[in-house]
Amino acid sequence: MLLRGGTSKGAYFLAGDLPAEPAPRDALLLRIMGSPDPRQIDGLGGAHPLTSKVAVVSVSADPEADVDYLFLQVGVEKPEVSDRQNCGNLLAGVGPFAVERGLVAADGDRTSVRIRMLNTGDLAVAEFPTPGGRVDYSGSAEISGVPGSAAPVVIEFPPGTGPLLPTGRARDLVVGTPVTCVNNGMPTVLIAASSLGVTGYEEPADLEADRQLAERLQEIRLEAGKLMGLGDVENTTVPKLSLLAPPSDGGAVMTRTFIPVRCHTSIGVLGAASVAAGLRIEGGVGEGVARVPEHGDRMRIEHPTGFLDIETALAHDLPGGAPVARRTAVVRTARKIFDGTVFPRPA
Fold first, then answer.
1. Residue 4: helix, strand or coil by DSSP?
2. Are 242 and 308 within 8 A, CB to CB?
3. Smallest Cα–Cα separation from 260: which of 78, 6, 23?
4. Are 185 and 273 in contact (CB under 8 A)?
5. What are the Cα distances from residue 223, in Å, to 30, 36, 211, 262, 340?
6. What is the SS3 assignment for 25?
7. Which residues of the chain have pLDDT under 70?
8. What family is this protein classified in (predicted)?
C-alpha cells in the first residue's frame, strides 16, 4: 500500500509479505523502489529521500504495543537500505495501515493504535477517525508542505527515559562550531545558521549547492556522531543537522534540516521534536536565536515550506537532574494513495 504520511511518501508492507532476513529483504526493496538511480524511473521511488521510504508493519509481541513498525530508508542513487533511524512522518500512516490490513480492529468513531518503533524500541500512540469501522482520510486538518487537507492523526510519544543530551552537555564545540546535540526520538545536531556563514532563510536547493557548506556540515556530522555515541556515521543517515535562525512568521525558530546531505523541504516529525526539546535546554545554541514561548507546551517550528506545531515539556527526572522529554505530541495527516500489487525489477 502506498501512503503519504506527513510530508513523506512510502510503501507500506506487512512483514509477512517480505523476506525475513535483512539481506534478501533489502535487495527486494531496492528493486521495488527502483534504486540505485537518481530518477528511480524503474520503481516506486520518487527520486528524493522523502519519497524513497518503506514501512514494515506486523502484530507486536510487546504487551504495551499493538503493532511493530520498522522504518527503512531506501537510498536513491546508492544501493543502500538503512534501519538506523526512525521516521515520524511515515509513522502517521502506520495506524491507518494496521486497521486497513486487519491487524487492529477499528474501535468506534476514533481508533487508537499503540505502535512500537523497532528502529529504537520507542513507543507512540496514533489516534485517527474510523467512523463506521473504516479509516476516514478526509478532514480539515492542514499541514505545511502538503496540499489540501485531511483527517488529523494525533501522535503522542510517551515520556523519554534516555538522556535528552547524549553528550551530557547543553553545548559542545565541534569542528570549531558551537552545537547542541539532542535526541528526542531523532538524533539531531542543532547549529546556529549564522555560525556557518548563512542566514538560515536560503532555499534548500541553494544550500545543497554550496559545496563549502556541505563539506563543513559533513565534518560536523561525523564528529558529532562520535560524541553522541553513534560511532562512525559516515554511511548512516543520523544524526540529522538542523540550522537555526530567528523566526520569520511568528513561530519559535526557522529551520533548515539536512537529512543528512539533502536539505529537507520541510522538517520531519521526530526531527522537529528534537529541535523543540533542544530549544528548551538552558545554555543551548538556540539561546539568542529562538523565541521560545513563555507559557504552554506548544511550539511552532518554521521550515522552508511553512511550519510544524509540536508540543514538548521537559522534566529533570534523571540522576543529577539531566533533562528528559516528559511529553511530546504532534498532529499530522496521512492518506492512502494506492493499494495493489507491485512488480519488482527483475533480479
1. strand
2. no
3. 78
4. yes
5. 30, 28, 19, 19, 44
6. helix
7. 160-161, 317-320
8. Belongs to the PrpF family.
284-316: pLDDT as tens digits: 999 999 999 988 898 999 999 999 999 899 987
Q: What is the pLDDT of residue 318?
A: 62
pLDDT of amino acid 160: 67
Looking at the chain, the number of H-run helices and the number of E-run strands are: 5, 16
- Written as one letter, the residue type at 70 is L
Q: pLDDT value at position 44? A: 98
Tell me how far apart the alpha carbons of residues 346 and 236 are, in angstroms, rounded to a whole number: 27
For 280, list phi and psi in degrees, rounded to 5. Answer: -90, 0
Amino acid at 224: A
Q: Say what the pLDDT of residue 5 is.
A: 97
Cβ density class 185-206: b for 16+ within 10 Å, e for less: bbbbbbbbbeebebebebebee
Q: What pTM did the predictor assign?
A: 0.76
**Measured between alpha carbons, how far is 9 from 338 in angstroms, rounded to an integer?**
11
d(CA 101, CA 109): 18
| Whether 256 contacts 193, CB under 8 Å | yes
Alpha helices in the chain (DSSP H): 22-33, 88-100, 204-208, 211-227, 269-279
State residue 205's pLDDT score: 96
50 vs 87: CA distance, rounded Å: 10
First to last CA, the chain: 22
> Is there a contact between 101 and 14 (Cβ–Cβ < 8 Å)?
yes
At residue 144, the pLDDT reads: 87
